[in-house]
Amino acid sequence: MAGADRGLPQGSNIMGSGTMSMDLYDAMSTLRAVRRLRPDPLPEDVLERILKAATWAPSGGNVQPWRVLVVRDPALRKGLGDLYRPEWARYSGGARSALERMEGEARDKQARMLAAADYLGEHLGEAPVTLVFCFNPVHMAITDSGLGRPSVVGGGSVYPAVQNAMLACRAEGVGCTLTTLLCYREAEVKALLDIPPDWYTCAFMPMGYPVLGGHGPITRRPVSRLAFADRWGTPFSGAAGTADAG
């Protein structure tokens, strides 16, 4: 099968146009944060399909108030990695403190996640591609901007594109993860990548073929913990008996 040596997901197929395809629910339930990435370049056709998937995402008024920088230049990738490394070191302190209070399988799982995140912290600049998603608030209807609490509505016109790109990575057998830590260094990122003054960063997505197993079953809270029926706190029973992924 073409591409089998690139770690393509089981059940994927290649149609006549070369487009990868897999069941959407399978893709969503196995989309892991893959932080150990090989430096091998991504083929142009694969990258093009991933970017096209991002463009299919919905946005308010279909304005698409986002742009994405496809960072492949070695010097620019290194620059992003150099900015990311100290931010991860600073951020990870809290996770390490929490690890000390954990036991059993929960501790083992957290330790594995930290090990993978530490790897990304040291090697983000070596990922063959990092997508840098930017937004322009002038083109957004940010309806929660005056509510006196953190504003999130604007992200509804940007993050679906990020999720589409990640699902496309899953279908293509490409590892990826979403990080926003570099937003702490936005001024430096904007200078590095020549981002205009009225555009801002909101998501960074290092991509590459996985070093290890890559994507696979995920663990999430069940529907019964996250969904209410009509009013807050009223259990949603429609999902009774439904198997939760992971």
Describe this structure in words.
The chain is of the alpha+beta class. The chain has helices spanning 24-29, 44-55, 74-100, 104-123, 159-172, 186-193, 223-226, and strands spanning 13-14, 20-21, 66-71, 129-135, 175-176, 200-208. The chain has one domain (4-215): NADH Oxidase, CATH 3.40.109. The strands form two sheets. It has a four-stranded antiparallel sheet, sandwiched between helices. Strands 1-2 form a two-stranded antiparallel sheet. The longest helix is centred in the middle third of the chain and has 27 residues, at 74-100. The model is unreliable at 1-18 and 239-246 (pLDDT under 50).
Descriptive labels:
single chain; 246 residues; alpha+beta; NADH Oxidase; disordered N terminus; disordered C terminus
